[in-house]
Amino acid sequence: MAIFNDQYKVSVCVAIPTYNREGVLVDTVRQILAQNPPADEVLVIDQTVEHDPETEQYLASADKAGLIRWIHGLMPNLPAARNRALAETLCNIVIFIDDDVEMPTDFVEKHRKNYSDPNVVAVAGRIIQHGLSIPTRKTWPRIMDYRFFPLDSTQRVVGVASFRGCNHSVRVVSLAEIGGYDQNYIGWAYREDSDVAVRLWKSGARIVFDPDAWLRHLAIPSGGCRLVIKNKPLPEWQISFPATYFALRHLFPNRWFWYDLFIGNVRRYILRKSNMFRPWRLPWAVAAYGYSLLLAIKVGIGNPKSQTKGDCLNTHGLGSGSGARSKPQFWN
């Protein structure tokens, strides 16, 4: 692979964070390697403890052949995996995709062409996913794009404030300037992608929604970021913490924050189906939700810029430290 780091030349890395995925991961990698024209670099950021032998053999052989760089043996944390990709890449554009997707052979090129405009900082690609429903609403404040903008739309839009983790690209330097992805989004890492999109938008960055840069998200039930991992549910407080933290960071004190705090998140987490069928769990769910809110306040106060600076800054000469490999702040 020819790797470039010339600020005047668009060079593209495809980064695939992965966790507990097997055959579908191999299929995803093969599709990326079949792109025409190809990506300049392919990174597989692997947080799986142990793969099936077939998957292990494929990834190892592709890495040895120089087709990919397989980076593994990492603590599971999706934003940390993204930051590790930023630390490792020598390209100036990174396309992040999930490890369970299907795409056309010109997918990389569709993302790449947007960056011929130097004002474009990030691209939100179209997502086709069974069961993906975006609430319909005629108007909404731009900051609420993460909830209302239809990412399965077929109309190009310039100036959105949202993208999904399974299909977005961004200039590495722009991410470094805002501190990379926030590693405080632990567990199933809900809203970690919305968080960085909103922070880019708040910084004045131009995010383009390009329906031509589309993929199909398979949403395979096993592996990935889930509420239940290997038949073991996440701790109750971790289920609600990411959404509570996001709301506190970006919506407080407007009415959307209060709606989420007392209505939306209560319905979504405390009164979710698994609790309603087991009503004896409701008191614990209430207590855990309160704990997640207090923890979000603590982390938010201790992390006023909602940033986790680290090696993604060092690589591009914009900072110091080792946050890209560090534990979330409240583990310290």
Within CATH, the superfamily of the largest domain carries the name Spore Coat Polysaccharide Biosynthesis Protein SpsA, Chain A
The helix/strand class is alpha/beta
What is the makeup of the main sheet?
A: 9 strands, mixed
Tally of contiguous helical segments:
12
Based on Cα principal axes, name the global outline.
Answer: globular
Specify the helix fraction band: 25-40%
The ordered H/E elements are EHEHEHEEHEHEEHHEEEHHHHH
The tally of strands reads 11
Task: Name the quaternary structure.
Answer: single chain
What portion of residues belong to β-strands?
15-25%
**Whole-number tally of structural domains:** 2
Rg from Cα = 19 Å
By CATH reckoning, the class of the largest domain would read Alpha Beta
In terms of per-residue confidence, which ranges show pLDDT below 50 for 5 or more consecutive residues? 1-5, 304-332
Mean pLDDT across all amino acids: 86
CATH architectural label of the largest domain: Alpha-Beta Complex
Instruction: Give the end-to-end Cα distance, rounded to a whole number of Å.
Output: 39 Å
CATH topology of the largest domain: Spore Coat Polysaccharide Biosynthesis Protein SpsA, Chain A
Can you walk through the features of this model?
- Helix 8 crosses helix 11.
- The protein is 37% helix and 17% strand.
- It has 332 residues and is an alpha/beta fold.
- The N terminus and C terminus are likely disordered.
- The chain has two domains: 232 residues, Spore Coat Polysaccharide Biosynthesis Protein SpsA, Chain A; 75 residues.
- 46% of the residues are buried.
